[in-house]
User: Which sequence fits this backbone?
């Protein structure tokens, strides 16, 4: 009788341990699924946010830091890289700021060489190319080759399909920039500053 009680007690203990293990495993499995589901939804949300940020990049400065104070840099100049589709604000060999750009290499190419900042204006519209832009700053031929914002249409509205092509060789020979980057060059870079296009 005592032996039977011990056996029954042992069986109850084993069943209890198994039940606890099954419950613990079930909780862990559900928790893992929940974490995985949360992780997937976070990744999806991040992808959507990143896609929107990239689509709207032309509305914002290229970098999150402040534009450089050019009064503090006596050797400042602008370097344009056609290969990288970037504009660099340089001080000697030091890169002060990097801007996303759009230039052209083959048809109607962006001219390569050493130039300087010339004249500037608020906006323009070219009926031949059916595009305009804001915050233009000339670096060659006094108004022919420019730094300027992403394109605008005849009504002065930004052409989003063109704006989203920053970082590609999509201009008509000028150097397209985000709206704030173009405005900063237009309002902060002095006449005569060196511009190197490679």
Assistant:
């Amino acid at each position: 009788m005592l032996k039977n009680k011990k056996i029954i007690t042992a069986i109850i203990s084993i069943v209890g341990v198994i039940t606890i293990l099954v419950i613990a495993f079930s909780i862990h499995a559900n928790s893992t699924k929940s974490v995985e589901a949360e992780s997937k939804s976070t990744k999806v949300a991040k992808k959507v946010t990143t896609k929107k940020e990239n689509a709207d990049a032309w509305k914002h400065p290229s970098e999150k830091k402040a534009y450089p104070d050019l009064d503090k840099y006596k050797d400042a100049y602008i370097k344009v890289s056609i290969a990288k589709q970037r504009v660099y604000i340089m001080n000697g060999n030091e890169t002060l700021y990097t801007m996303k750009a759009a230039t052209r290499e083959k048809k109607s190419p962006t001219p390569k060489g050493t130039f300087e900042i010339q004249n500037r204006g608020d906006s323009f519209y070219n009926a031949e190319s059916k595009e305009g832009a804001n915050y233009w700053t000339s670096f060659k031929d006094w108004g022919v080759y420019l730094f300027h914002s992403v394109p605008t249409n005849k009504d002065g509205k930004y052409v989003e399909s063109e704006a989203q092509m920053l970082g590609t060789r999509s201009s008509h020979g000028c150097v397209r920039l985000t709206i704030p980057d173009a405005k900063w060059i237009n309002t902060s870079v002095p006449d005569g500053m060196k511009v190197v296009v490679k």
Notes: Confidence is low (pLDDT under 50) at residues 45-49.
